[in-house]
Amino acid sequence: MDRPLGVDIRYTSEQTLKVSDDIELYYELQGDEGPHITLVNNFFIIAPIWRNYTARLATRNRVLTYDLRNQGASSLKADLDWDDHVSDLLALLDGLGVEKTYLVGTSTSAFICRDFAVRYPERVSGLIMVGPSCTPSDGLKRRATERACINSLANGGTTALWDHLYSVVFAEDAMREMGAAGYLGLREAFTAVHPAEPMLANLKAALQAADGPELLSRIKVPTLLLLGDQDPLWEEDNAAEAGRLIEDSATVWLRGVGHLPYMEDGDGFQAAIQDFLDGLARRDAEVAPQSGATTASRAGAEDGTDPVVAKLCELLRVVVADRTDLPGKGLADTPLSAIGLESWAFTQLLGHIEETFGIEWDMDVPTEVFDSLATIADHLHKHHDAAVTAAVSKGENQ
């Protein structure tokens, strides 16, 4: 069924972009002008569905949607790490020439957007988390829910998973309005576009995603929490806590809506996002006349906003303290081969990194990890994130 309840889920193009040796991502672009908005699928929708909920946004913005790996028209790969989704997003934006974008994450994909925004804040104009699964808690309930979904899918296929999800994600009013026809139509569409095995691989990878209040506190870009007041994951108290943790954030509640605000209140969903973008544009315009010194200061900040990158740059300067030819800007992205580190200096740098962050290097680390300080930082975030986060936090509190 192509259009259950009038929802268009047809693939209307064959646009794909190669983001790695064995992965191509399907994508769609709407709108001809304005800021970029990139909507990141959760595991239970596909890119074409967003056309039904972004038409108004596309009149003032350039809207990018895409299928994750193991989803829809994108490549399938059974073996994946959670961080592959973050890397795919970066490669997609690079390949399409999108230097900066607003990110919209919904349910589990909010983790992808959160991790991307923390790692690459310079690429993110703002973060919109719609019914996000990343709450201020330790994630116990989230992981239990995902394990239950995995069991439903593994034991009963996509039909059993749909039955499981239907009662969890929709508000009661929406279920009444859709009735049996809505339930059956959406079930038909869901089972038609989602093969079991690729979805199972993505769900298992999601169990690797990290939870916790400290991760929300690392978000340093303007953030909107767009929540349904009948979403079982969110209530007033934990929404207020998330707002306190994310220093530049706002919360908008959509009434009578569950875990999928875009499906249950598409107009409210689009209006809230556009209001958020307009508010940031007004704020930027108000501070623009006074921003000269700030802009210059940021341009001269060689090491970016990631404290791990900044610490690596500091360690390198300590190791080669007698060098006066290191770049004043962009040190993190400068190839270490271009810097010409002698073997003793490189060894000393690795030792300092172990001592500073409390990690031990694995002898099987690929050589490309050491292309630059930025690639080293990416490796540390991916494989030792808890340790480096604790080390940075400890250093800031001393």
TrEMBL record:
<dbReference type="Pfam" id="PF00550">
    <property type="entry name" value="PP-binding"/>
</dbReference>
<feature type="domain" description="AB hydrolase-1">
    <location>
        <begin position="49"/>
        <end position="269"/>
    </location>
</feature>
<feature type="domain" description="Carrier">
    <location>
        <begin position="315"/>
        <end position="380"/>
    </location>
</feature>
<dbReference type="InterPro" id="IPR029058">
    <property type="entry name" value="AB_hydrolase_fold"/>
</dbReference>
<dbReference type="Pfam" id="PF12697">
    <property type="entry name" value="Abhydrolase_6"/>
</dbReference>
<dbReference type="InterPro" id="IPR050471">
    <property type="entry name" value="AB_hydrolase"/>
</dbReference>
<dbReference type="InterPro" id="IPR009081">
    <property type="entry name" value="PP-bd_ACP"/>
</dbReference>
<dbReference type="InterPro" id="IPR000073">
    <property type="entry name" value="AB_hydrolase_1"/>
</dbReference>
<protein>
    <submittedName>
        <fullName>Uncharacterized protein</fullName>
    </submittedName>
</protein>
<dbReference type="InterPro" id="IPR036736">
    <property type="entry name" value="ACP-like_sf"/>
</dbReference>
